[in-house]
Predict the 3D structure of the following.
Amino acid sequence: MLPFVSTAAMTRFLADFSAQIPSDTHAVMVLDGAGWHGASVEVPANVTLVPLPPYCPELNPVERIWLYLRERYLSQRLLDDYDAVVDACCDAWNKLVAETGRIHSLCDFPYIKQISS
């Protein structure tokens, strides 16, 4: 987990992501309108970024993940400091990924099957 979001952090994420992609594969990543997803991000050759239109959470499956994390683990809590926030977020994420099939169930929009088939 990076301690902040920025164009530099996004560039680092994309570089790390790109390194995990098999050499014969090209990945398409759909992004929301966050400011650090902007034009100055360095995009690796094996990745294409596709921006979502503004105000369309129904097209962004990750919004359901954030909602799930907030509802189950992160809301209505008073955390002492920055480190406690980071720890709480890491703990919430680890609990989520430990739930077999949960991410799939949260992000399984019908249109995704049409696109990937």
In short: The mean pLDDT is 86. The radius of gyration is 16 Å. The chain has two domains: 1-54, 61-117.
